[in-house]
Amino acid sequence: MTSSSSEHATDRIDTRLQHIGQAPLDPITGAGPVALPSMRTSTVRFASMDVLDRTQAAKQRGERAPTYGRVGLQTHAALEDLLCQLEGGQRAFLAPSGMAAISMALMACLSQGEHALVVDCVYGPVRYLHQTILSRMGISMDFVAPSLDRLQAALRPETRVLYLESPGSLLLEMLDLPALSQWAHQHNLTVIVDNTWGSGYIYQPLALGADISVVAGTKYIGGHSDLMLGAAITQDAALVHKLHETHYALGSTVSADDAWLAIRGARTLGLRMRTCAEHAMVVCQWLARQPQVSHLFFPAWPGDHGHALWQRDATGSNGLLSVAVDFTEPQVRQVIDSLRLFGIGYSWGGYESLVTQVEPSALASHSYWARVADERMKTGTVLRLHIGLEDPADLIADLRQAFAA
Ligand SMILES: *Cc1c(COP(=O)(O)O)cnc(C)c1O
After folding, report:
1. Of 64, 70, 150, 274, which residue is the catalytic one?
2. Pair 150, 13 in one domain
3. How far is it, in rounded angstroms, from Cα 195 to Cα 205?
4. Do 183 and 47 reside in the same domain of the chain?
5. What's the 263 CA to ligand 1 centre distance in angstroms?
6. From the CB of 225, is ligand 1 less than 6 Å away?
């Protein structure tokens, strides 16, 4: 963390998010900008060889002491500090995308011949990472239902990692993170959690028992659909060392301008998340009254299967939801094409509303779907919506005309 973190007089994250990474004042004039500039550089310049040696020594001790541009200077350090404060971590390691942060965390914790248990509600590309790269390196993975029985049955002597995502991708399945982490620690597994949904603001895996939190800053932290970014955050000294090594060896780097955009986005993280969550709740209230809607997947919704876990473990909600509808495949395509305010596209966490269809093959890979879907849901289709900052009355009017079409 940068020295500024110790000066924060409050634990309240909304205040901290406005004060992390303030630009320093000029020691002579006593004046300076409010916002920290984007510190672009490819390398670091030292006043003397002694200073260089001291910096190298600090780096060897594992401190954040840049000797080269790859890890970045003040802008990167401020973003790392911000992510540590959000997630309750000691160090954050930046990556050029959420997926790059996931690969970095997995490669830091797994070696040839080892095995990871991965919950089957995981972000789809993690399966692709295993199929394409990790399997080739002799690392095996099992994708299993997030229950202690199933995990216990799939545990092997060479299992080293439990990889979770809560709530899970596509159907927002809430996991019992404290129970899963406790079980994993009994078996000496490192618990890695994809916390893109919570982004440290409404959900804190490290406080719930995880060892590494991974977040796609591409989503709510950036918040404006204009940058790609990821990070792995931990409070464990041994994992700091492993992540540091892997981050450095892989050459993962983030442009100062993207780090700067992420800091700018994070200033309004709370405002945006709260407003998206409010709007999503209003949209859910409308959706729940529609005869074509059979189920809402939204942990803050009282009818969601994970609602009690959400109440216990999360401190808020956001704009992401899925909805099971009675439409056939051609009908759902027509509904999506009829929407005017919702962009058709993947991703979420920006200022704008988006819609996609959840692929039937993706549903089939989530054991949660088999557990919760009744006959009616199985004959229908599932839409995923990101509810943005537009007026919810307009979003509802748009959905109404599309459902009628
Ligand atoms: C988008 C997403 C990612 C990947 O982030 P990128 O920056 O697009 O690589 C990882 N996990 C979850 C849950 C996501 O939604």
Report:
1. 70
2. yes
3. 7
4. yes
5. 18
6. no
Tell me the CA–centroid distance for residue 74 and ligand 1, in Å: 25
Q: Does residue 219 carry a catalytic annotation?
A: yes
The Cβ of residue 73 has, within 10 Å, a number of other Cβ atoms equal to: 15
The catalytic position among 16, 91, 120, 123 is: 123
* Amino acid occupying residue 294: S
Domain extent at residue 353: 269-404
Domain count, the chain: 2
| Contact between 313 and 203 (Cβ < 8 Å) | yes
- One digit per residue, the tens of pLDDT, for the chain of length 405 reads 344 444 556 789 999 999 999 899 999 999 999 999 999 999 999 999 999 999 999 988 888 999 999 999 999 999 999 999 999 999 999 999 999 999 999 999 999 999 999 999 999 999 999 999 999 999 999 999 999 999 999 999 999 999 999 999 999 999 999 999 999 999 999 999 999 999 999 999 999 999 999 999 999 999 999 999 999 999 999 999 999 999 999 999 999 999 999 999 999 999 999 999 999 999 999 999 999 999 999 999 999 999 999 999 999 999 999 999 999 999 999 999 999 999 999 999 999 999 999 999 999 999 999 999 999 999 999 999 999 999 999 999 999 999 998
Does one domain contain both 393 and 310?
A: yes
Q: Is 194 in the pocket of ligand 1 (CB under 6 A)?
A: yes
Q: Which of 103, 219, 348, 358 to mutate to test the pocket of ligand 1 (most atoms within 8 A of CB)?
A: 219
d(CA 229, CA 99): 9
Residue 219 CA, ligand 1 centroid: distance in Å: 7
CA of 137 to the centre of ligand 1 (A): 23
Q: Among 214, 248, 266, give the residue marking a domain's end.
A: 266
Which atom of ligand 1 has the smallest separation from the CA of 346?
Answer: 1
CA torsion sign, 300 to 277 to 313 to 210? positive
Examine the domain organization and report whether 102 and 216 are in the same domain.
yes
Shared domain check, 145 and 19:
yes
pTM of the predicted model, to two decimals? 0.96
Our answer on whether the CB atom of 98 is closer than 6 Å to any ligand 1 atom is yes
378 is catalytic: no
Phi, psi dihedrals of residue 383, rounded to the nearest 5°:
-105, 140
Q: Looking at the structure, do residues 350 and 377 belong to the same domain, yes or no?
A: yes
Cα(215)–Cα(227) distance, integer angstroms = 14
Encoding tokens for residue 344?
């058709």
How far apart are the C-alpha atoms of 185 and 162, rounded to whole Å? 9
